Amino acid sequence: MPGPARDFIIAPEVKSITVSLEPAQNAFQSLLLLVKADEMSGLGEWVTRTVAALTPQERELHRLVLIGFYYALIPGQSWPSFPDYLDHLAHCDPFALREKLLRVYAKFPPLKDGECPEPGAEPLPIDVETVLGSVDAYVAFLRERFGDDLVDVELETRAFPYVMDPPAMQKLVVSHLLRMWDEFLAPEWERVEPMLRDAVRAFQQVDLGEMSRLEAARFITGRALKEEKWEQALRDAERVIFVPTVHYGPYQGMLWSDRTLWVLFGARLPAGSQFQAPDLSRADILVRLSALADDNRLRIMRLIGEKGELRSQEVMEHLDLSQSAASRHLKQLSAVGYINERRCNGAKCYDLDPERIKDTLQALSAFLLGG
């Protein structure tokens, strides 16, 4: 008897783009933001408040755990809660945890012409015994792949003894993350979870099937996403999961796990949605207003509005700003969408987006006055 026809059993359609709560990914990325707070303005109020509550020693420990062992800790799948994920970390094979870390490092090829190439889908062959032969060999291995600017030698030197002792590494990261959850993040999660669920439900009511991946990404995040990296990432991913958060402020986070692309974005309601979620609308407005609540950022917007498109260097010179200050302000304004960023002759150029400004004023008016 011949077998059934190939199309006799039809596989269910798999949505390649979803909007999901993802508690473990959400919590982990919120904790990671505590390390980035000094580099980025406009992050959620919980981030700045928590950083201020930590002692210098606690901040250094947090940085060691989150940066030194990042690729070993990042959730690679969906979990019902962050404590469930921590329980998994506590009971997994500690040597498998180290293997996960080294496996991801091995996906990054050595630097080429000083540039860090994109990681491959599979790890490149490495001699683990040589890499772990000494702290100098370990740091050299990292610098060969990420460059001097991205490798903190002092931090990786402190991380090395734990890499050499996986049970000790496991004990350190689990105890630290559990404490951060219990003391700082659990109460915050209880506060924000209803808002995040509202955002997920609102987007699940939208049919994204007629949109391209890039169109869907722009619709969900509410951002132009003009950078080439977005098109490339969205094209390469087998699955794209959008995760709303209230801590990222105006920014979007992009991270990979196998062939899944996770995109964290500021929790919001879809454009044109009839879904009622006042807390969510207020959170979105606060992100927009936060970018305007600074004299330097207002001066930057006024300058670009008067002069037209300007290079970052020209903004610095006109307003007498340091490079770090100008970069931080321009990054936040660009992330909110008040200015557009593009590459021009090797420099970053910025022009004003009047429609985004009008949209913010209309959103504020609708929230305060209704209609």
3D architecture notes:
With 371 residues, this protein is α/β, with parallel strands linked by helices. It folds into three domains: 34-186; 191-266, no CATH class; 294-369, Winged helix-like DNA-binding domain superfamily/Winged helix DNA-binding domain (Arc Repressor Mutant, subunit A, Orthogonal Bundle). The protein has helices at residues 23-36, 45-53, 56-68, 70-73, 82-91, 94-107, 128-131, 135-146, 153-164, 166-204, 213-221, 228-236, 278-292, 295-307, 312-319, 323-336, 354-369, and strands spanning 17-19, 239-245, 253-257, 260-266, 310-311, 339-344, 347-352. Strands 1-2-4-3 form a four-stranded mixed β-sheet, sandwiched between helices. α1 packs across α3 (56-68) and α1 (23-36) crosses α5. The radius of gyration is 22 Å and the shape is globular. The termini are far apart.
Core attributes:
371 residues, alpha/beta, Arc Repressor Mutant, subunit A, 4-stranded mixed β-sheet, 3-stranded antiparallel β-sheet, 10% strand, globular, disordered N terminus
Layout of helices and strands, plus pairs?
Blueprint: E1 17-19, H1 23-36, H2 45-53, H3 56-68, H4 70-73, H5 82-91, H6 94-107, H7 128-131, H8 135-146, H9 153-164, H10 166-204, H11 213-221, H12 228-236, E2 239-245, E3 253-257, E4 260-266, H13 278-292, H14 295-307, E5 310-311, H15 312-319, H16 323-336, E6 339-344, E7 347-352, H17 354-369
Helix pairs in contact: 1-2, 1-3, 1-5, 3-9, 3-10, 5-10, 6-10, 8-9, 9-10, 13-16, 13-17, 15-16
